[in-house]
Design a protein that fits this description.
Layout lengths: L3 H15 L4 H9 L5 H11 L1
Length: about 50
């Protein structure tokens, strides 16, 4: 599993690409405390 820095880098890139159509997703990511990291990764994989 990627560490949080790698994941946040991926998420930052995804936010740039996806935020226009998924503001709720970006807001959720910004609030995330990694208590559901597996769900977060699954969501990122669906967007990629």
């Amino acid at each position: 599993m990627s560490d949080h820095r790698d994941l946040m880098k991926i998420l930052s890139e995804k936010q740039v690409l996806e935020c226009k159509g998924a503001e709720w997703f970006c807001k959720t990511i910004q609030k995330c405390k990694f208590d559901k990291l597996d769900v977060l990764i699954e969501t990122v994989e669906k967007l990629s």
